[in-house]
Amino acid sequence: xxxxxxxxxxxxxxxxxxxxxxxxxxxxxxxxxxxxxxxxxxxxxxxxxxxxxxxxxxxxxxxxxxxxxxxxxxxxxxxxxxxxxxxxxxxxxxxxxxxxxxxxxxxxxxxxxxxxxxxxxxxxxxxxxxxxxxxxxxxxxxxxxxxxxxxxxxxxxxxxxxxxxxxxxxxxxxxxxxxxxxxxxxxxxxxxxxxxxxxxxxxxxxxxxxxxxxxxxxxxxxxxxxxxxxxxxxxxxxxxxxxxxxxxxxxxxxxxxxxxxxxxxxxxxxxxxxxxxxxxxxxxxxxxxxxxxxxxxxxxxxxxxxxxxxxxxxxxxxxx
Length: 320
Hints:
It is built from eleven helices and ten strands.
């Protein structure tokens, strides 16, 4: 008889649980077939396709889908439950070796970068248009409609910053029209919470990938890792969930040293790779905070505004 024994954090409006079926445990990720299809079902489906791709080329570092099905108004897929594992965010906070996890991460990134698709002109340009400019324009629209739960002073600050960012992005779009980007296999959503750390084997395993991207550059994955550690996205999200905050005061001073140390260790291990680009890292990291705005609007528009402003702060450091 199947029994839910643990509820896990689910992304993209999904429900993720550990199920015990006799002597076997597995993880089931389910999604509504009717509600919030754009940010739920579409992303759930893209995860399935990217999981299949990762498992084909990197079976030692990814999980295989065991079953896909539906129950009432929910679709689901099942993957193995990995004993003795936590996500890398939890592992670092628990005191696991920052350098060892960084070493395994660097190996993983290099392996994916070496599964090359070739150079494509225009992919970065489209990415900037869709993942930076479009969310910025949406932010201006909803701000003008009063949907952000901001005071008048906050609203003015927010709209001024977003307006400046739109002008900056328009300039970036002109600069990147002819830019070629080396594309390769990527995870697509490589946050610390989407990488498992096996405490026994001291190896990492990718979960919850993302296939809806306009530019398959490994620097996109690096930027998401940086979003998690250098900018402490998961940690800051927890702070925002628990107490009031000012949208223009991103609490970088509260990010744990273990995350910052890990960020430094990883950078040292990859910054001499031929595919590494500091300029692209800055741009893409900014995009990770800006592009989440439409999704944040569904659950927490005030957080969306705060993360948008942090992304704009990073964007203003971009040199293309």
